[in-house]
């Protein structure tokens, strides 16, 4: 392990863009796949690795949906989620906002109350045992009408403890048809954090800002294709959750060396680093921060982490505590 790798591993971290299903360790996915073979997910680890070799973004969405079908009881939800949060805690993550798309588990038989109780129990366990503060983002799976109403029903009538925002996944075309849902979210005090600007171009980013009033955007990297959209992001101070390896694994960016992160920072955009679906993409938050260090320099890593806590929906006392810990951390351990 190099000096920089050891330094990044030891840093206290913040994770803003990690998916509940997509953060599941392969051995947990394999165990659930053996329990529910009809889901179509391999239970052999080598086969599972091949299953996660995505050909494009649409293929990734199909695989993600298949893995979602592995959650059929509240106990499944608890088992999966506790493993995810333990993986984050082992990377010295102090605060995480985890995106949960409830439609799959609910459609597969998890009762609404059972889902919420499992999330509440896991969140309490993570705070008590790991010192990890967790906020939940409930994510609309990219379809208006009944699928969106499933999510809004939870937000409005049975939210889990620690619900902090409303998200939007699925295909990333401009989506003004979701404006009413995000207005309902804002009425509940839930800011909008949709995905945009990864699988689709800068028009999707503009729509997320102007139609959905996004305060943060998942990815947003293709805003760089339109200077007017870059200017809009600066003007509105919209924060971008950048996940470099995800962008390569979903075939949006050819190589990590070609990732637009340096250009985004040079353009004055508000950016942090996240991991998205780390086991599916063969990465971790620690590795994503190392990628950032290679692209923009190790000195920028604490700044990116500070950006993350500033853009988070953490309580003010959690932000102050994290900022204090980050200030006390050693500087970059470069030769």
From TrEMBL:
PROSITE patterns hit by this protein: A_DEAMINASE
EC number in record: 3.5.4.4
Keywords: Hydrolase, Metal-binding, Zinc
Cofactor(s), names only, from the UniProt record: Zn(2+)
GO-annotated molecular function: hydrolase activity
Top enzyme category: hydrolase
A Pfam cross-reference name: A_deaminase
Residue ranges occupied by any Adenosine deaminase domain in the UniProt entry: 12-327
Homology family: Belongs to the metallo-dependent hydrolases superfamily. Adenosine and AMP deaminases family.
Protein name: Adenosine deaminase
């Amino acid at each position: 392990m190099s000096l920089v790798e050891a330094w990044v591993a030891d840093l206290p971290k913040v994770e803003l863009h990690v998916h509940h299903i997509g953060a599941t360790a392969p051995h947990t996915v394999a165990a659930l796949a053996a329990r529910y073979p009809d889901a179509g997910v391999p239970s052999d680890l080598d086969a599972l690795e091949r299953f996660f070799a995505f050909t494009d973004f649409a293929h990734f969405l199909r695989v993600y949906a298949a893995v979602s079908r592995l959650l059929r009881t509240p106990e499944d939800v608890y088992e999966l989620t506790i493993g995810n949060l333990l993986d984050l805690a082992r990377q010295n993550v102090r605060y995480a906002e985890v995106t949960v798309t409830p439609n799959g588990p609910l459609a597969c038989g998890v009762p609404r109350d059972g889902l919420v109780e499992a999330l509440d129990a896991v969140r309490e366990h993570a705070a008590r045992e790991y010192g990890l503060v967790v906020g939940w983002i409930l994510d609309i799976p990219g379809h208006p009408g009944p699928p969106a109403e499933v999510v809004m029903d939870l937000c409005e009538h049975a939210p889990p403890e620690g619900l902090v925002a409303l998200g939007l996944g699925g295909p990333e075309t401009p989506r003004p048809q979701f404006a009413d849902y995000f207005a309902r979210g804002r009425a509940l005090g839930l800011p909008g954090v949709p995905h945009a600007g990864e699988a689709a171009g800068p028009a999707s980013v503009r729509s997320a800002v102007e139609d959905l009033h996004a305060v943060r955007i998942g990815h947003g990297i293709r805003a760089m294709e339109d200077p007017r959209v870059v200017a809009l992001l600066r003007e509105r101070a919209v924060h971008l959750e950048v996940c470099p390896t995800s962008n390569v694994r979903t075939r949006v960016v050819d190589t990590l060396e070609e990732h637009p992160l340096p250009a985004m920072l040079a353009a004055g955009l508000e950016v942090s680093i996240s991991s998205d679906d780390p086991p599916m993409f063969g990465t971790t938050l620690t590795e994503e921060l190392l990628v950032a260090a290679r692209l923009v320099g190790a000195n920028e890593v604490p700044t990116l982490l500070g950006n993350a806590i500033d853009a988070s929906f953490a309580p003010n006392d959690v932000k102050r505590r994290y900022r204090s810990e980050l200030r006390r951390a050693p500087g970059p351990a470069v030769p």
